[in-house]
Write a structure and sequence with these properties.
The structure holds two protein chains of two kinds. Chain A has three helices and no strands. Chain A is an all-alpha fold. Chain A has one domain. The radius of gyration of chain A is 27 Å and the shape is elongated. Chain B is an all-alpha fold. Chain B has one domain. Chain B contains 19 helices and two strands. Classes of the chains: A mainly alpha, B mainly alpha. Chains A and B meet through helix 1, helix 2 and helix 3 of A and helix 7, helix 9, helix 10, helix 12 and helix 15 of B.
Amino acid sequence: MMAGEPKIAEKLRKTETETVSPTEEPKIADELKKMGSEAILPIEVKLVGWSLVLGVVLLGILVLLSRWLFPNP
Amino acid sequence: MTEKRLPFYKSEDWWALLLGVFIFILALGAMLGFDILGWVVTPKIWTRLPAAISTVTKNYANLGGFSALLFTYLFLLAVTTGCALILGARIKPYVRGFTLLFFLTSLCLIAGHHGRIAASKPAEMNEFGLSWSLRLTGEAGLILALLMGLIIGNFFPSVARFLGTAARPEWFIKTAIVLLGAEVGVKAAEAAGLATAILFRGFCAIVEAYLIYWALVYIIARKYFGFSREWAAPLASGISICGVSAAIATGSAIRARPVVPVMVSSLVVIFAVIELLLLPFVTQAFLYKEPMVAAAWMGLAVKTDGGAIASGAIAESLIRAKALLAQGVDYKEGWMLMTTTTVKIFIDVFIGVWAFILALIWCGYIDKKPGEKVRLAEIWERFPKFILGYIALFAVLLIVCLANREYIPRAKLLTAETGAFRNLFFALTFFSIGLASDFKRLWQEGIGRLAAVYVLCLFGFIIWIGLAISWLFFAGVRPPMAN
């Protein structure tokens, strides 16, 4: 601990007691336990699939476009 | 999609914009012939303490470095306290916190500029009579600020709470980004072709990042880790897009409970710090011959605004020093940081669009509720407003300097002043990021599964796909030479 640390801690004790106690905060473990299992819906598969396909196709197009518009010296 | 929104004056985005524009307007004086902000403090490489800081312009040189530090503190205290009060901070804790934060951060900046740490050029070594130096450049001060923040945040919780009201990393970095717009505008005018290429390539990189990153993280979280949609979507946005703001925007778009993005965000911040401490040094070791690839990579891989821009700044200083030493190449300062910022800003701009798309899908197909519609205004509401400030400052200086190139030297006087403030806001961001990174959360019960997805996705493919995309779009692109 730094030399001034106890003094600062003492000074701030009142402020600290005003903050929310950690036990009142939601715990990740509890929140995750509440989570039920959900089957993957067709719309999720579509979202992921279209994103990836579009991403890969655009990758090719944009790389070509950037090299055509801004060729490296 | 009818949740209650805060009024604009309670948004850090707007105050970052206004603060940045206010400083820019004052700095305009330097360009127009009456120097208003020349007294701002700036650190110098030093071996004797009195020479460690000075005023940013010679017009106020008689003031001396320590008076400049005091005036800069008083100015920033006044303007930020005004904003913080409107944002809801209490005045006494803010003033006390900001005072300690400012002087500790300044101490780190000064220490980081010591010749043994920062001197990187032969001329600097000769000037200070040094036989060796760590050659980290002055940006080492930012690393010190981060480390000091981390130490205080993790080992001195009372001091961290004392500083907590004033430590606002997102606000500080957004203000810094607004100010950076002015510097980028002048640089773009100096080399318009290169700047346009960076803007276009940055945009391309982002399209890829959104489409590929998000989809992969989402399906991995859902299929292999069994997360529900409520957890998987904010997690995918947090890990793959832009950390905290993306997790919150996504959580709101799909109507997740507030606790979900908050918990995801706490992980995002911690891992951004780990990346910030690691990746710039990786770029120095392996990417010093491809500086723009490294810069874009920092924007794509590091998942908070502050973390990404900070990584870009450190990577730039490390790579410039290494390139000078290993290749004898002296790259012009600022171009790598501009690239990281461009990539990150495009990411931020698209958060609103992506949240809108997710809201449409969740509303229309997943949580179907009769009569519920997604408003187009959602895109604007989620748009990060501080970016308007960046664009405005960039556009003003670009247009003025392109209209008459003789204005460029005067514009550089202006950006020296905005740059001094930008650097201070960077340093305050570094310190605040460290302060807010509570590594004890990693040991919290139940976080293992969440952290496992994060580690697997981030280190398993996100940083590598980011590197590949950066390479595809930026390989062979070089910053201009310093001379």
